[in-house]
User: Fold these one by one.
Assistant:
Number 1:
Amino acid sequence: MKRVLRLSNYLFKSLVRDGSNLFWLLAFPCILLVIMMLIFSPLYEPKNITFNLTLISYGGTFSGIIERVFNEVSSGENRIFQLEKFPGSGENLEKGLERLKDKKTDLVLEIPEDFDARMLNWFMMKNMGITPSAPTINVYSLKHQAASQSAYVIVKNIFQKLELEFLKGMGYQMEIIPVKTEIVGTEDTFSYIDFIYPGMVIFTVFMTGLFGIGVDMTWLKEKGIMRRINVTGLANSEFIISYIISRFYLIILQIALITIIAKFIFKTNVNPFAPAFILYTLLTILCLSSLGFFIAAISKTTNSANAISQVLNFPLQFLGGLYFPLINVPWVIRWIVIINPITYLTSGIRDSLGIMKSPYPDIVTLLVPVFWTVFFLFFTVKRFGKEEF
Amino acid sequence: MSNFILEVEDLKRYYGQVKAIDGVNFKVKQGSVFTLLGPNGAGKTTTIEIIEGLRIPDSGKIRFLGKEVSKIGREEKAYIGVSLQETNLIPYLTVRETLDMFKNIFERSLDADEVLKMVSLEDKSSTYIKNLSGGQKQRLVIGLAMINDPLILFLDEPTTGLDPQARRNTWDILLDLKRNGKTIILTTHYMEEAEILSDWVCIMDLGKIIKEGDPHSLIRDLGKESLIEVELDVNSVMLEELNNSGLDPVYDERHKRLLLKTNDILSTIDLLLRLSRENALQIKDVTIRQPNLEDVFLSLTGKSLREE
Amino acid sequence: MKVIWKLFLSTVKTFYRDKMTFFFTLIFPFTLVIIFGFVFGVGSSGEESKLSVGVLSSDNRLYDVVNSIEGVDARDFDSTESIRQAILQGKIDAGVIYNSEEMRLMLNFTTMQRDPLSRMLGDTITDRILKSDIKIDKIIDLKLTSIDPGRTVTTDLGYMIPGVVALTIFNGGMFSMISLFGDYRKRGILKRFGVTPLRPYQFILGMISGRFVVTISSATLVLMLSQLIFKVNFNINWLLYLISVSTSILGMMAFGILLSEIFTEPAVASEMGSLFMTVMMFFSGIYFPLEFLPGYLRKIGSILPLAYVAQSIRIATGVETGSSIFVLTVSLIMTMVFSVLVFVSGSKAFRSD
């Protein structure tokens, strides 16, 4: 056992001295985590976002009220809009729409010339007991622009509140109903880092499986290093155990790095020492390492191992729910999601941290990765269990 | 224990229809340098891989240190040192670490410094493998084979691909080991190497040993004193004439080389010149030399040892 | 000329053997189109999918209110628990429970990820409930007009694809130059050519033109295949397309040359290339909107060349309006950067060190 452990030290040393491994297996996952956080966390906690709004108004009592409301939400520190106002005219509308298309503004709001008159008319008719058609305000948004669509949703919301105020003014009893929002399956304290952290743990183990084991082991095989070690009388099983231990060191280092960044830079709420999480992490390590050995078992050359790993890399990564849950996707790709062990590992590991309930039954979440592990190991043992190389 | 450290009897190994080795017999004397000589594909590597324990024979007997074994297993491997035909090592370990890594596998081992000295790599001990030259790497590979202080050293083509200088360095190391009484089993397709290093040579072709003996007697058995190598496009008329003159002509079609054995150089050359003039053939080059193992092989098989 | 042609042919052939470049130029962007197309795409129809919202079957009124909201489909369920399960399994997007004091909105994670503002659905529903109490539908009619930014009406996916083409160009240009300049220099191939009577410009022209043609074909292939699979509407101005694509390839090649100049070890250069690719992919607004990012991050996006290449190609494919002046300016800058860099490193590469 002692020589197995010592051999694993050498294997680990050679692994981390290779700059390419350092980059792909240690640095890259950390960089990716930082990028994901920068890009996606504002999406979930939309704070401090200002949209550009163009308001075109012909003036008047009611138009004035609307202008004042928008002035208010466009000033101060927590303002929602950066407002620009133009006096009403067909020309200014054209100009506003041009600015919209040039992405200089996110939304154009036009209060038409007859708005005040129609508003007045509406209230008068309403008093007489008739419900007339509502006066129109034109909103122009730009397709494919998330900001434009978001700005519209906010403007709509503001108008809803404004209408309620008008109705209150007309003497209606309007108690605003409080809304409690919950994202199903997640803790109340949902934050993106809690969601992405376990995903990155799996990603980093996946990288080691594909490249640190699959490609690397094939290289050892192809270059005859395994044969050279075999002629020393060291059993293949002993060598493989040393190899696994050396990769285990690496994985621990990877997970530690990701955890430190998640915990101390992005302040995740999860407890990385939760026993269920540790167990699921071990299952992940087992499953994805055996995937690596499986790749090494089926490929003859480093080149083909590399090709297999690259082909598996992105589909399994993106269709394993690491970055976004995948439910209700079309069948063209759903089958990949379903057979993908990463799907269940991600669901299980998030469930184990109490971040998000797995959409699959517990037994499925557990058994699919176990099945794959057994399958991969069966082939690996069949290949490397042979006495000849 | 007999004088022989390793004996092999009727060893066979087939790959489907291909008979890689087909009934190989030999005995290796303790403290000798034993060489398997033959062209690529003759079965040298399969033979040596069986006695290194990398392959299992289909049939045959192996006596290792006087004990009969069905294959070379883990116990036996502790007593052998191996340098494989093409050895790559882990690029991001230093020379020293690589030696230590292998040393750690064995129970019985030499000191790494001692081995470094043996293969004169003392000043490279902290260099990464990836930064070694071909010759240095090969020396380290031999050093690795020595690390467990083996009773038998297997060297499968230890100088293939090295430049002449590095080859000579390797030979010096091997000659040193030989002087110290190490048993060495060598495969090579360099005659010169076999001649300089070996005590006993087995010539292999098509999976069989076709001739064995010590290199000098093998050469002496060719009988004739000198060889004349002629480069020309010979025709059958000329070949027959030469045959009739008792010159034992061997013609290597591929390299357009004619080999003649003679005791009388001058008259043979005379004959050659006359015949080439009569047949209107142009002699491009003539070499006169002493016979070597290559000639032994050529006379046995009619083909050249090296596929150039 | 014949020499250049031969070199051209050999570089075209080696493209398929140069696995890294081949993968990142063709396979990778296309995989992304397929995955994102099917995961986030709205399919080929171009219709935005409706939000399905679960409501308790006992609450008829809520069912009607929810159904009256445009873009929302109400579905009834027996119990709160069955709504939660359906949301968890992604069968519906959201669920609402109303008990006259409080409105509970349950959202599916993916739905929220796709549309963060779906959180506001709760407000919209309570607003409707209040108004339906007093039988007033609305006072002000907000009339939304969604303007297509381009000459052609296309889906979100259609708007994204030119960005993927830009990524193809970026990868193809950058990685092929890293492998040509870096790898060839390391293996001494450049020097080997340097001792032949071949002039440096002939060599570089032959090499670059091969990869150039391969990259331009890959980019167009990605465009066409995506169009075929997802039936995206483009209105391609071929002249503008060719100008922007070809100059962008040159510009991205320049980037690759620059990397292989800075990182002389080819492995390191190609790792840096992958790193830049990752950064560009995320921060150029191709796949993910940048509007929600803090200002300093949006500034990063605005200095990345990929953002400009993507915009040029969007303009050329008609999914975004913009002046051809913009496209031509980007093209000119790309060409200039390329010329300078090729001139400098090209002559340097042949010098022996």
Number 2:
Amino acid sequence: MAYSSAQAQEKRRGFLDPRTKLALVLVLAVFVMGGLGGGQLRQIKTVLSALPFLLLLAERQWSRFAKGLAILAIGYGLLLAMPYLPGVLNYIALMCGGILTRFVVTVVMGEYLVATTSVSEFISAMERLHMPQTITIPMSVMFRLFPTIGSEWRSIRRAMAMRGIHLGGVKGGQVLEYQLVPMMTSTVRIGEELSASALTRGLGAPVRRTNICRIGFRAQDFVLLAGCLFVIAVWILELGGVKLW
Amino acid sequence: MVELKNVSFRYGSEEGHEYGENSLSGVSISVREGEFVLLTGPSGCGKTTVLRLINGLIPHFYPGFLEGEVLIDGKAVGSQKLYDTALQVGTVFQNPRSQFYNVDTTGELAFGCENRGLPEQEIYRRIDDTVARLGIEALMDRNIFRLSDGEKQKIACAAVSVAGAGIILLDEPSANLDYEATLALRKLILEWRKEGKTIVAAEHRIAYLWDLIDRAVILRDGKIIRELIGEEKNALTPEALAGMGLRSTIQESPGSVGLPSVLNEDETLTLTDFHFCYPGSKTPVVNLPTLSLAAGEITAITGRNGAGKTSLLNCICGLEKRCNGVLKYRDRTYNRKARQKLCFMVMQDTGNQLFTESVLEEVLISLPKGTENEKEQAAGILRALDLDQYLDRHPQSLSGGQKQRLAIACALASGREIIMLDEPTSGLDHAHMLETAALLKQLKARGITILVVTHDSELIRACCTRQYTIE
């Protein structure tokens, strides 16, 4: 059967709309990572923390799920072990555990956003939010550059292993400097070539861009967005001194 | 119709500082609608600059000092916006890794049309049409980071097709392609010819399109030295070609050079149990229960794009943790860690394996600890590789060929006995290709075993003594 891009786009549509993912990242960053809100929000935060993991499962991102869970477990492990540790170790465990348990959930949510959103979906979502091109374009280039920087980084690490440059090996102290020299050169070059290519393909034209990807709110989006609003509402009411429970 | 009228150009900064010499001086070219013109000549001859003038990247993206006129259908490219030129001109670039804006292939094909706001249904129709015509169904809805270079270049060409511009520019599109992928590119160009597209290609590897072109324009040092039309281009002798710094016009499959893989009298190095899959994949990229290669020879490793040539080198070098094979060489068995000290690979991106701030320091850190007269040793190696005049230069500022030689200098300094090169001549002109060949022969004379992954039959003919083809 002939290839149909329309059907393929429908099939690869993500579980959530990118805008819902962005809203979730913001809410998690403010309430879980930022720690906004008082006692009332505690239970809600527990539910919120579970959310990115459930979403990763829904999109079948097994290895990201496992990694996030492992780091979270280490964080809680440290907090549990903390009272039994002597002196300085006690503080270190408290600090590391505190940082991990606070940050990991939001980082996992961010990873979910980047991993499950294509550049096209992202641009499309930003446009529907009426973001100006001057913000959308640089952000979408960053989306594209993350995996590139990752693969350059790995390629340089390998080259270093081959040259025998590693921690504790030859000139261990300078490892980072050595890593950064080719990294900067190649990132600048790739960034320049990427921009040149994008410009010859009409990026930045003053017309309303179209997008072939399928995005849009469905039931799951409405449920989660309502959840976000609920969290914010509870917080505002709390500020006004109203206690719901 | 594309016209360059007496164009001179010098790269410079936006503040008006000019640097270097003229990239082009007094060049006039006109390309009729539907014509296929090849721009060729030695590295630095200005062919890429001509393409940048036509697609408007000069002066809009690469500033500099421009004289003369560049016109498309009578309109000056410099005075119209890049996004308007994009409607008329599509470009396929040399580096398949840095010309994609999207991470998924289908999004990439749609990109040009999305930018100009075509309705979704029209974009779907164009994509489906192009996919069917080019036969690339298997490449759709894939992650671009997981494609081979040949596949990436197909996507880049398809993207130009979908955008539908009448003028197509090709900037060394075959530099990273193997023989089969080059033939596929040739078929694509034929398809464009049928559609009546105007094509301007800048290329070193001219063999695959020599019989398709209407005209060849040969540049040297920013000037046109010859234009060849019809019979003239078929009458060129190999000597005349080499005299103009050009590659061969005869398309030859690397497989048909026909060198032996190992001879009975060869001393061998033997690989056992070399298996490798990418994480998350179950299909092995490298799958060699056992393989013998000739020691002390120059072995060409050939095979189509995606056959696992580079992965094989990575495994031999001990860079793939997931590959548990062992290598036997001169009665010793080398496991993965030990191979990291025995082998050295000159990567395609040589810049990524040079870390310091001067050429001399780069070699110094490679010498084993406690070497006596470090500086003299290092200087000696650099002299042997013709790099002694650059001791204080920053490695990242060297040319591609010089970076290659510096990487090899490091390999020699650290006493490696097996040196591997990954496509050392992609994008090199005739003279530089011969320089690389001479360098490999020099290494062989030192008793070093050389494995070179290549699809360049001219390089194989010039220096290789053994050949192994991955099926």
Number 3:
Amino acid sequence: MNILTNCPRGCETTVKKLHATGPLKQRLVSFGIIKGATVTLMEYAPRKSTVEVKVGKTRLALRKEEADMIEVEDAAK
Amino acid sequence: MQQNSGPTCPVIANHIKIALVGQPNVGKSMLVNSISNAHLHVGNFTGVTVEKTEVLFDYKDYHFTVVDLPGTYAFTNYTIEERVTHDFLCNEEYDLVINVVDSTNLEKNLQLTAELMTMSKKMVLALNMSDEAEKEGIEINAPYLSQLIDLPAIAVSAVSKLGLDELVEAVIKVHEAPLVEPKLIFSEAVEEEIGHIQGYLDRHRFKAAISNRNIAVNLLQNETKTYRVLHDNPLWTELQPMLIEADRHIELHHDSEDIKEIFAEEYAAFNRGIITEVVKEKKQSIVKKTMTERIDSVLIHPFLGIPIFLFFMWSLFQLTFEIGSIPMEWIDAFFGWFGDLVGNTIAHEATRSLIVDGIIAGVGAVVMFVPNIMILFIGIALLEATGYMSRVAFLLDGFFHKFGLHGQSFIPLVTGFGCSIPAYMSARILKNDRDRLLTLFIIGFMSCGARLPVYVLFAGAFFSESAAGNILFAIYITGAVIGLFAAKILKMTAFKGADEPFVMEMPKYRLPSFKLIWHTVMTKTWMYLKKAGTFIAAATVLVWFLSTYPHNEELNSTYAVQVEQVQSDEEKSLLANKLQVSQLEHSYLGSIGKFMEPAFEPLGFDWKMTVALQAGLAAKEVVVSTLGVLYAIGDDVDEESSSLVDAISKNIPFASGVAFIVFVMIYLPCLAASVVFTREAGGIKYFVYLFIFTTITAYVLSFIAYRVTLLIT
């Protein structure tokens, strides 16, 4: 299983599955993080504690714990 | 609130009530400001932490009420804003919805639009920021969009005031016409099930406020309110098995068991289809970065980001205190002058004292902080409106998370160094109740500006002038560090629970509009004046009363005799001071101080220090003036009056002084701040918790400081 935070800065990949549940899942979904969506890893905060991802035209900040719940396709380009 | 501004609504005029809905950062408030031209009437709904704003205006023969609802990403109850919006849309009366969307990010915005379309409400789509979209090479065919989804879609721009009349005309037209159900098409599997349920409802002639198709959609996406309504209907016995079957069918098709996710995917698929049809985007050269990306490469740089942010904060504080202190002096002088002026016209001694020393001085103390508060609010509004705030949260969340705080807690905490009142108010940016409460409890640990006089006085009394500055700095830092650890402890005990997720949009950088910033700042300042002002006036009257009564006439006459015996003015004023001290000693406040003295003895405080601390509950500046009165050097003391510094270094042992500083650093903020705290936290019980928490912490740490200092000196 490949998770989003395994990707280096600048990589573009596709969401495979959301491992979050409940309100957090709804929250991510409402931002457009759904199966098949293309996400780009924009920036890491110091010590990789937080990541910035781009979904469509939206930029999102996620804590590492949350970003780890996003499973992405293996072949990260 | 009275509606006295603007033309009043004649009875015959048509009244249209509009709910303005949209995702955050789409320029809703700006749009409503532009449409109504000037805010004829802006009121804030009280009782909820996040206000919805109502704006009234007239156009042709129509009278409009626009309710500007807080931004919401989807129909969930994740944040307070979303709860407010969702409740309003489901439970309140309104004629029409204007859904504001950001033309530069239509796909994401349409997710909310799709959900709104299932409500069977009259609706108009406002494609805001159309000029910005044009600049970015995005072309939206609005008429075609209207045709595809059966909703009037109008390209507007709140900033350059484009298409506003068309929007209002469209609203009138939709309002006059019967409801047209918008077209929202799902995948085949879902459509099939909708058809089943709708057909069943139609056959049984079921009628409700929303169409049977939408009832079917809402049942399928597990909308609780629809369930509740149908659950009490006899049809339910037949409907329930149909729904179970439908769910199974849909879940099978989507290979998922989360119906919310399935519907999000459905909406997203529908929207993608719409986007391909109506949006034409010029392919921008890949090398060229957007403005936001370029700014972000500096501002959230892994190494430079934090230093840059600290510099901004430092500048804001410099501005707040440098510029803010100028009008502060004027205001202070004005209230002094005004007090004298009024005082001279009142002959009755007690009434004069009540009005001048009680009410005017008390209200003056509140008004004095208005310049500071306004500058801070402007700074914070700028940080928020430009989109920088979310970058700060992004940078700092890692560090703050270690202490159980949220990245966005930073803004209220830093504001707390200025004044706790705006800090408590700015804690609203935290979406989650628990995070917000935790932050509210910690704000007091950031020593506010009003505590500075106390620190300056004691640092001056016990340390050399050269060391005093460092001592001051150390006091501030220690307070902040204690605050962080207190947060950690609270998080592990009182606010225990799973960490709140940190999922936040980082909006595009935008130049904020002056009008909107000004409007926000004025509204907030006015609220501060109104709420804190009325209350602190009452509170100061109380403190004044407690420190003035009961008046001991015997003392007065004893001193009067003594005053007659002495010659020099110096001795006279000395006696007058002594009289003041004995009067205070016999006042209610004095009695309380004496009564409380044993409790504070382990900390090395005498009754005078105890009274000063209690007076400080009203406002921290009062600590200094009370000590001044008690050590009998006259009423007019400030932190630089050397005689008070001398008196303190002579009368107060070093260890007691250290313990006193620690106590002042931690215990309850002033009354005005406490009131704001109670309101922001959402109940008097939180104030009781805060009181217990800060008092115990202050007492314990103060005791430790006292004992340790005794040991090492």
Number 4:
Amino acid sequence: MTSVTKQKSFFESLAFFRWYNGLSLKRRRMILGYMFIMPFILGFIFWFLIPAVVAANLTLQKWNLITPPRYVGFENFESLFSDEILGQSLKVTFLFSAISVPLGLAFAFFLASLINSKVRGIAIFRTIYFLPSIVPAVANAILWAWLFNTEFGLINFFVRALGGPKIAWLQDPNWVMFAFVILTIWGVGNSMIIFLAGLQGIPEIYYEAADIDGAGRWAKLWYITLPVMSPVIFFNLVIGFINSFQVFVSALLITNGGPQNSTLFLVLYIYRTAFQSGKMGYAAVLSWLLFFILMGMSLLVFRYIGSRVYYENPGD
Amino acid sequence: MGFVDAPAGAYVDKTPPKTRTDAIFKYLNIFLLWFFAIVMILPFLWLVSSSLKTQNAIFQYPPDFIPNPMVPENYINALTYKPFGQYFLNTIFVAGMNVLAVVLSSSFCAYGFARIRFPGRDFWFGIVLATLFLPYAILLVPSFIIFTRLGWVDTFLPLVVPQFFGGGAFNIFLMRQFFRTIPEEIADAARIDGCSEFGVYWRIMMPLSKPALITISIFTFLFAWNDLIGPLTYLRSPENFTIAVGLASFRSQTDISWDLQLAASSAVTVPVIILFFLAQRYFIQGVVMTGLKG
């Protein structure tokens, strides 16, 4: 890895390079390494550390963006406990996460299994299955608002054709959660592709060996596919879980939090608190709350589910 | 889910099913493939179909699936209702700058993580991975404060400048994985010929990493094209709006009817779908390259 240079260039005659070339190889590598990762380090300081400090400071202030901020002590934290809308928002967010994450994971795995088969034209199927995931979020929201339209939407057309009632998907607080779960599950393409990549990475020998041992389909699924896929399943679980806490665009555009705050997801509530109600300090408290919820839940997931994951090459 | 027999290769299975259950599973598999293909594509067909209908035909039950009469004028009306041309240029500018930033910055950092051994490298790479799991929503409010202090609100700067600092954890991670697949001997040969470490990065690794660079470019472009929360937070004047914000403001204005909303949505989706079809192998490659295999 040493740089063996024969002739002296202009740069090498500069003082900096004379100093640099005089250093030991170890030192030089260190300088070089930090030079390369410097953009990330600076970015981390500017866009993560400083905002975190600002957010911590902001939690003690009241600021509506117009008049100068003023310190109010722990008032913003006290508001947490008397905020009924926050309770509703947390309930909605947790409920959505609890329903959509397992369903989405199972559906993505199921779709990945389907498009992992050896059928003519499978590439076209894979493309079609991934299509919903690339629709721009805003267009997607408008599309689904129209699909779920009570009178003229396509979904109620099918429900009624099958003899069901006219469902007020977006107006009925009990149904609206299912509407959001359905539209989320329709867009599981990203986890599906990750599952597909995982399935394709399973050596065929495993299944051949199982065939020789007389294993059936379910035995192969249960004793080979699922254990070998467990790191991928775990990855998708963590990503799906984090995403489920960030529903924003669809909640803003399809229902705007309604009806009766039944789609007031936490991020939408933070956004409203900050930019519509002008309570920047309280919004900062809510952001920290979201951070600690996600961190706490991730720790639980890693502790109780991560330990069951099977790794083929530990430490690799 | 039991139809997963083996990873699909490039070949097509022509062997006849061995047993009756095999045959049932085979046909069930094909049936389900078609069924879900229709489920996946139907909303798009419905979108296009509705966007070509007159106001009256939209509010009709049961609906016609083929619009009659067809009104492609909906598209012209929708796209001229707001200055979508301007929105389009703004979006192209933001997305283009993002791609440039990400390609330069993430590959540069990734080279340091992939190819230079120095104390603290693993610590910093741990931080990269940690930020991967840190949702944007948490930083929404504090970042807004920072950009307000900097006086960057209502400019494109908050949407572009941060990308030059590392270009996102996911992209650094992906580039690092790709760089590690390139044989070190090629770089060593260049070093012996007197190439500096920067030269190795720029003249050897970058040209060899075109597939990975294309992959991150596409992801970045799509992200910028589709992003609503960033532009919605930072852009104020209508002449600075991106397509996503312009389209979202369609929703909030009650006087814009469904036919125009749907025509505009469909028009915004089409470029993305075309890009997807042109570059679809890079989407899959991007996932496979991150090494997320069992």
